[in-house]
Amino acid sequence: MAATSLFQIETGEISEETKYVAVVELRETEDIVAEGYKELRQLLAADSSLFYHTDDDFLRIFLRPCKYYAKSAYNLMKRIANYKDKYNDTFGNILPHMVKEIILPSNIFNILLNRDQKGRRVLICYSKNWDPSTITGDELLQGVYLLHLIALLEPETQVRGIVVIIDCQAWKIVKPLLVRKAARRVILHGKDMTNLHKYLLPCHLPEDFGGDLPKIWYTGRDWYPEIEQQTEFIKRWHACGRRR
């Protein structure tokens, strides 16, 4: 019998509030969306070097972050295809069951069950739990990669985004790995939770981070089953990219 997941992937319609955000910030109106789908399908059809699924749900993954500008979404898809080619040995065929023994025993990653005040998913990285002698850097990145793919499935997260809390012990290790744009978005808080609360309100945070919610009592063992249930989507993702 399949395990029951504490964490649920939200694949339904976005909320009314999020629809408003999508219109204001992403130009997500009926006419613009329809034109975005049409133009992006035409661009993909004209490029024999690329393969991507072209159903609405899949194309929306690329159109939303590009505010429905089809050419920008197409360029994003090309960059992703190049990335997949370059790092194929690390990410090419990675599936949830392959990192199960990384996610479950190590407690390096966790996901808050609730969203923050801006509707964003909150991912927590406990880098102090990472033992490089038992988990390689590539294996760690594979775990992050799969969590990223799962986030792509959630329409609410596509619009609202993700925020990551990383313990500061990891900063000297993590910063060199970030592109300049991502590094500029990192805000250091150290042990001063008051500063953290300027960005993530206490009413949305657990006691572990000076918040009003109960301490985190769950681990990857509780939400991993939901990740595993998305294996077919991950296989569809792996099938996309440069035609071979």
CATH topology of the largest domain: Phosphatidylinositol Transfer Protein Sec14p
The name of the CATH superfamily of the largest domain reads: CRAL-TRIO lipid binding domain
Strand order of the largest sheet: 2-3-4
Q: Tell me about the largest β-sheet.
A: 3 strands, mixed
Spatial shape? globular
InterPro entries: CRAL-TRIO_dom (IPR001251), CRAL-TRIO_dom_sf (IPR036865), CRAL/TRIO_N_dom (IPR011074), CRAL/TRIO_N_dom_sf (IPR036273)
Protein name: CRAL/TRIO domain
GO molecular function: phosphatidylinositol bisphosphate binding
Domain CRAL/TRIO N-terminal: 55-80
Summarize the structure in words.
The chain has 244 residues and is mainly α. It folds into two domains: 16-86; 96-233, Phosphatidylinositol Transfer Protein Sec14p. It has 13 helices and five strands. The strands form two sheets. A three-stranded mixed sheet has the order 2-3-4, covered by helices on one side. Helix 2 packs across helix 4. The longest helix is centred in the first third of the chain and has 17 residues, at 70-86. The radius of gyration is 19 Å and the shape is globular. The N and C termini lie far apart (38 Å).
Topology:
Layout: H1 16-26, H2 30-45, E1 50-51, H3 56-63, H4 70-86, H5 88-91, H6 100-106, E2 109-111, E3 121-125, H7 137-152, H8 155-160, E4 162-166, H9 171-174, H10 180-184, H11 193-196, H12 220-228, H13 231-238, E5 241-242
Parallel strand pairs: 3-4
Antiparallel strand pairs: 1-5, 2-3
Helix pairs in contact: 2-4
Organism: Popillia japonica
GO molecular function, one term: phosphatidylinositol bisphosphate binding
InterPro entries: CRAL-TRIO_dom (IPR001251), CRAL-TRIO_dom_sf (IPR036865), CRAL/TRIO_N_dom (IPR011074), CRAL/TRIO_N_dom_sf (IPR036273)
